[in-house]
C-alpha cells in the first residue's frame, strides 16, 4: 500500500511541476499557490506511509533535542570569539615566521 501512496505522491508532484510550467501565461502568484497546494496534498499523503510516519517522528524528536540545547550567553560568545581571533593572529604570526625562515634558508642555499 505504501508503494501505491508513494506513486500517487510522485504523480502529484510531477503534475504540479508540469502545471506550473504549462500555465506560464497565468499569474505567477496563482501558479505558486497551486504548486504549494499540490505539494501540501502530496505531503499529507506521504505522511500516512510508514516511512512518512518515521520521518515525522524523527522531526519531532529533533525539535525536542534542539530545545534541550543550552546556548551560550553573550559574554561566553564574546570570550570565545576573542580567543579564536587571538589564536588566528598568533598562528598567522607563527606561519609568517616559518615562511620567513624557510625563504631565508632557500635564499642562502641558492645564492
Layout: helices, strands, pairs:
Layout: H1 2-22, H2 28-47, H3 50-68, H4 74-110
GO molecular function, one term: protein transmembrane transporter activity
InterPro entries: SecE_bac (IPR005807), SecE_sf (IPR038379), Translocase_SecE/Sec61-g (IPR001901)
Pfam family, one: SecE
How would you sum up this structure, described in words?
The chain is mainly α and 111 residues long. It has 2 domains: 1-69; 72-111. 87% of the residues lie in helices and 0% in strands. It has 4 helices and no strands. Helix 1 (2-22) runs antiparallel to helix 2. The radius of gyration is 29 Å and the shape is elongated. 3% of the residues are buried. The model has no long low-confidence stretch (mean pLDDT 95).
How much β-strand is present in the residues? Answer: under 5%
Residues in helices, as a percent range = over 70%
How many domains in all?
Answer: 2
Average pLDDT works out at 95
Cα-based radius of gyration, to the nearest Å = 29 Å
Separation, N- and C-terminal Cα atoms:
80 Å
The main sheet comes to: none
**Can you write the helix and strand succession as a string?**
HHHH
Which parts are unreliable, with pLDDT below 50 for 5 consecutive residues or more?
A: none
Structural class: mainly alpha
What's the total number of strands? 0
Structure characteristics:
mainly alpha, 4 helices, single chain, 111 residues, 2 domains
Structure in a nutshell:
This protein has helices spanning 2-22, 28-47, 50-68, 74-110.
Amino acid at each position: 500500500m505504501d508503494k501505491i501512496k508513494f506513486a500517487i505522491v510522485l504523480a502529484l508532484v510531477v503534475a504540479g511541476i508540469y502545471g506550473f510550467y504549462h500555465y506560464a501565461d497565468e499569474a505567477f502568484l496563482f501558479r505558486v499557490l497551486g504548486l504549494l497546494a499540490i505539494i501540501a496534498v502530496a505531503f499529507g499523503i506521504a505522511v500516512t506511509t510508514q516511512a512518512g510516519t518515521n520521518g515525522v517522528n524523527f522531526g519531532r524528536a529533533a525539535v525536542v533535542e534542539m530545545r534541550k540545547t543550552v546556548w551560550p550567553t553573550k559574554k561566553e560568545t564574546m570570550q570565545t570569539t576573542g580567543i579564536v581571533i587571538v589564536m588566528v593572529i598568533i598562528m598567522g604570526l607563527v606561519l609568517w615566521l616559518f615562511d620567513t625562515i624557510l625563504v631565508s634558508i632557500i635564499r642562502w642555499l641558492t645564492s
